[in-house]
Design goal:
Blueprint (H helix, E strand, L loop, with lengths): L5 H5 L3 E5 L8 H12 L4 E5 L5 E2 L2 E4 L11 E4 L6 H11 L3 E4 L11 H12 L2 E3 L5 E4 L4 E4 L6 E9 L2 H12 L4 E7 L8 H9 L6 E6 L5 H14 L2 E5 L13 H5 L2 H12 L2 E3 L2 H13 L7 E6 L2 H13 L3 E2 L4 H10 L10 E2 L6 H12 L6 E6 L7 H18 L6 E5 L4 H9 L4 E2 L2 H22 L13 H13 L7 H10 L8 E3 L2 H13 L4 E6 L12 E5 L2 H18 L7 E6 L7 E10 L3 E8 L4 H4 L2 E4 L5 H9 L18 H17 L3 E12 L2 E4 L2 E5 L2 H4 L20 E4 L5 E6 L5 H9 L3 H8 L8 H8 L6 E8 L5 E9 L5 E8 L8 H16 L3 E7 L3 H10 L2 E4 L6 E6 L2
Parallel strand pairs: 1-2, 1-5, 2-4, 5-6, 6-7, 10-11, 10-12, 12-13, 13-14, 15-16, 15-17, 15-18, 18-19, 19-20, 35-36
Antiparallel strand pairs: 3-4, 8-9, 8-11, 21-24, 22-23, 22-24, 25-26, 25-28, 26-27, 28-29, 28-30, 31-32, 32-33, 33-34, 34-35, 36-38, 37-38
Helix pairs in contact: 3-4, 6-7, 7-9, 10-16, 11-16, 12-13, 13-14, 14-15, 17-18, 19-20, 22-23
Length: 897
């Protein structure tokens, strides 16, 4: 139900405490005390069959006896009583309930399941069970058993752990950190991370969202909400269990590399979250992002009166991947003129231990004016030679003056070692983030840099795929279906050769030989060309071939091939007498002396489904553990980023007499593999190891493909049964014709379609643009267009019409569903010279068909009264047309598809 009724949860007018008690140390008493001590202005009702009055408040015996319908119920009764209380609250019309009680169990038929069903039937929201509660300082609501009420602020905290939530509240209170809300979700049988991300992303009182996550259940729902929230404001996450044991019984190298935490990390990265490792770092990052959000790069200038602390800051900056800024020649000259000769003449800018406020001010002014850096870290070590307080005031004054003249201004960070509270308070009042140590400050700077990078990645336009990439899906479908009919879990080498060939993935070709004579015949073309061959046993029942002596390498003669084939077949029959043995597979021996060995694959994660794995390959991949993971689908930009996150990416560059490997070919291989997994949900795992990469391209020397029926693997409700991020919906591509017979392709929009939009907008008159956007539009920036091309297919759809003969974009229609997936708002725009050709009508019919297929109940649109053409079309399509009560110039059109 997403955000439904969450506004009431966080701002109730009345609260009922079920299980309120006068007993000390009972949760019901703690909640009652917190509500009263916090100053909740609404009505507080108490329910307890054993007491008539509790702390001067009348109590009733049952929920049914309450004199009014409470907005919120806080339930703190024994587990067996919880379902009946939930049912009574739902029947009475209560909007939301917080269940503090633990021990309700899990799964069908459990007490928790009974609560969820009763609440869902009545539309009542549930937080918990097994949770701390909800705290909203702004409305003085402390519906929890936390020890204290946090101060009001602009950070929303969502925690899976009640202990962590109350610990963070206490931690924050001594550091003067405030919250817009604190929510402990516990077992989250209803309200979960996704619902709350959607809520706080739209909450004007919330500047940043902090998450403490132990596990995710509905990956697609979470990823959809996460990606939307991260586009709106910073989202910081702490995930526990970073070093938990990974895939214990992995069947492939790829599966072994894709440990649970690594997959979560990939999910957070794809969502645009800023992941931190502990609670201290969580609030340090929030401090940085609280005062500063604009950063143009990661080049840091360091100004200090102590050389040692400057060097430590440089070390930390290097560790975290930042860059020590250069000093431009002009700035160097001006610093020489303003500073004594003993200054360091390099970054860090060490202005000596006797630096007074004037020296700090002069140096800082020059650094702020220097375009060679993106931010300045100012540090002070107290000495008896100069006043640290005066230096702090100078930094504040210069920074304030600079901010008035520069938009956006570059960030300034401060570290006053051993500084007084007064200095910290002064920096805070001036919106200059200050830290206790140089390490914390550099970490704060890098949090800002990482946030900037994640935002850029979310909005980046990927390059287009090659035009000749046209996979033969029918060929792959027949192979997979045949293997599943045969109850097999693995494709054989012959089948894998055909599958990868259908997707343009280069692998060592395999040829079937049923006996020694056929093996010699298959090997002969390679041997004649001077290429040795490899022979492997071919059996659906023998997965690990080397364990039965089923592999022979580097065979250069026909006699060697004949003998090796006979030996392999006899050894396999002896080792696995019940195995079905098809024969052997013959491969050419691939020798690329300057190639790098890589691993590329698809792993199957129990939470997030298919995951793309890339890293250094070979037989010791688990030991080397140089890998990076990404959630599919991928584009070329995401694939390049995946490659760059590994150590092996460094040796893909040219070195000594070794030419650079073809990184474009590697990125293309990753995208193709992700597309293969998207097109065929039956593929459980793919393991390409090793993949040889050099300047001529890439080729997979060995491969394994695991499959299973979709019913076994299914995890998502629609679009793709397993992907956490809904992939490009190719099934919605349509070939159509306009009234004059012009052939058009109508398909879902893709991020790489951005270049189509500028010429399209150029073909739309200003009047038509005004009718579409309700205001004149004169500039079409990357950010503006990215809103239309980079969509989440789980929440929105946009169909673009492309003229097949010219490749030009003629029109677009889009539908954006609300977070509850109940109503979708549509918008349509057709190039002005295409009016009257039937394009708008066809686009509207298609978006209505899409909404119907997706289960969206209402299509809604806003149309200007003067847009009579659009209104006429809506009438013909069956839309109901009504006035907008807030704006007489706008008409509301609605259709139930």
């Amino acid at each position: 139900m997403s955000t439904y009724r969450l506004d009431t949860l966080f701002a109730p007018r009345s609260v009922a405490v079920v299980g309120a008690s006068p007993r000390e140390k009972s949760p019901g008493r703690a909640v009652l005390k917190n509500l009263r001590r916090g100053g909740f202005a609404g009505t507080v009702h108490l329910v307890n069959p054993h007491y008539d009055v509790i702390e001067d408040i009348r109590a009733v015996k049952s929920y049914d006896e309450l004199p009014e319908v409470p907005d919120l119920a806080v339930i703190a009764v024994p587990p067996q009583q919880v379902p009946s209380v939930v049912a009574a609250a739902a029947a009475k019309g209560t909007a939301a309930a917080v269940i503090l009680t633990a021990g309700l169990g899990h799964g069908p038929g459990s007490l928790a399941d009974q609560c969820e069903k009763s609440a869902r039937a009545a539309g009542m929201r549930i937080v918990g069970p097994n949770c701390l509660g909800v705290l909203v300082s702004r409305v003085k609501l402390n519906a929890s058993f936390a020890a204290s009420m946090p101060r009001s602020g602009d950070l929303a905290l969502i925690s899976q752990s009640g202990a962590i939530a109350t610990g963070l509240v206490e931690w924050a209170s001594v550091r003067d950190v405030g919250f817009s809300a604190v929510v402990s979700i516990g077992d989250s049988i209803d309200v979960d991370f996704a619902d709350l991300l959607d809520h706080f992303a739209m909450d004007r009182q919330t500047r940043a969202i902090l998450l403490y996550i132990e596990s995710i259940t509905n990956a697609r729902k979470f990823m959809s909400a996460a990606r939307a929230a991260a586009r709106a404001k910073p989202v910081l996450v702490v995930k526990s269990g970073r070093h938990a044991a990974g895939a214990k019984a992995a069947m492939t190298h790829t599966g072994a590399l894709a440990g649970s935490d690594a997959v979560y990390d990939a999910a957070f990265r794809r969502a645009g979250f800023l992941r931190v490792l502990d609670l201290d770092e969580l609030f340090a990052a929030a401090e940085s992002l609280g005062h500063l959000t604009t950063l143009l790069g990661k080049r840091l200038a360091i100004l200090t009166n102590g050389g040692g602390i400057g060097v430590l800051a440089v070390d930390r900056l290097t560790d975290l991947g930042g860059e020590l800024a250069d000093i431009s020649p002009g700035t160097m000259n001006r610093l020489d003129a303003a500073l004594p000769a003993i200054w360091s003449h390099a970054n860090p800018i060490d202005i000596a231990g006797d630096a007074d406020e004037a020296r700090y001010a002069a140096a800082l002014q020059q650094l702020l004016d220097d375009d060679a850096n993106d931010a300045v870290l100012v540090m002070n070590v107290p000495t008896a030679l100069a006043s640290a307080t005066a230096a702090a005031k100078a930094v504040i004054r210069v920074t304030g003056q600079y901010r008035k003249t520069r938009n956006p201004p570059k960030p300034v960070f401060a570290v006053w070692i051993g500084g007084s509270d007064a200095a910290a308070e002064a920096f805070d009042a001036a919106a200059i983030p200050s830290y206790a140590t140089e390490s914390d400050a550099v970490s704060g700077f890098m949090h800002l840099a990482r946030y900037r990078e994640s935002r850029e990645q979310l909005m980046a336009t990927p390059p287009s795929m090659p035009q000749d990439f046209a996979p033969d899906m029918a060929a792959v479908r027949s192979i997979i279906d045949a293997a599943l009919r045969d109850s097999r879990s693995w494709l054989d080498p012959i089948e894998m050769t055909k599958v990868f060939s259908a997707y343009g993935i280069s692998v060592t070709p395999a040829t079937l030989a049923r006996n020694a004579d056929e093996a010699v015949a298959a090997a002969k073309p390679y041997l004649s060309a001077g290429t040795p061959v490899v022979i492997k046993i071919l059996s659906p029942d023998i997965v690990h071939k080397s364990e039965v002596g089923g592999v022979r390498l580097n065979l250069a003669t026909e006699q060697g091939v004949r003998q090796a084939t006979s030996d392999i077949l006899s050894r396999a029959r002896a080792a696995k007498p019940d195995a079905r043995i098809t024969g052997v597979a013959i491969f050419p021996m691939i020798v690329r002396p300057k190639a790098r060995e890589l691993i590329v694959g698809v792993a199957d994660d129990p939470t997030f489904g298919p995951v793309i794995v890339f890293g250094q390959g070979g037989t010791a991949v688990e030991v080397i553990s140089d890998k990076a993971l990404a959630l599919p689908p991928l584009d070329l930009a995401l694939a390049r980023g995946l490659i760059a996150r590994t150590r092996v990416s460094r040796i893909l560059k040219a070195y000594r007499n070794v030419p650079a490997a073809d990184e474009q070919a590697i990125a293309l291989l990753l995208v193709k593999l992700a597309q293969l997994a998207a097109d065929f949900p039956e593929i459980r795992e793919i393991d390409l190891n090793p993949v040889l990469a050099d300047d001529t391209g890439v080729v997979a020397v060995d491969a394994r493909v695991s499959i299973a029926p979709v019913e076994i693997l299914r995890r998502g409700p629609s679009g793709h049964p397993r992907f956490a991020i809904r992939p490009y919906p190719k099934e919605w591509e349509r070939q159509m014709k306009l009234l004059d017979g012009t052939a058009i392709l109508v398909r879902p929009v893709r991020p790489e379609d951005e270049p189509l939009y500028l010429p399209f907008f150029a073909g739309v008159t200003q009047q038509d643009l005004r009718l579409r956007f309700f205001a004149p539009v004169k500039e079409f920036s990357h950010t503006f267009i990215a809103r239309f091309t980079q969509i989440d297919y789980a929440r929105a759809m946009a169909f673009i019409a492309i003229e097949e003969s010219s490749g030009e974009m003629l029109g677009v229609v889009r539908l954006h569903a609300d977070v509850d997936y109940e109503t979708g708002e549509y918008a349509i725009l057709v190039r002005s010279d295409q009016k009257g050709r039937g394009l708008g009508w066809q686009l509207m019919q298609l978006i209505i068909e899409y909404a119907r297929a997706e289960g969206i109940r209402r299509i809604r649109g806003q149309v200007l009264q003067e847009n009579t053409t659009m209104l006429d079309m809506c009438r013909k399509l069956g839309f109901h047309i009504g006035a907008d009560p807030q704006d007489t110039s706008i008409v509301i059109v609605e259709l139930s598809p």
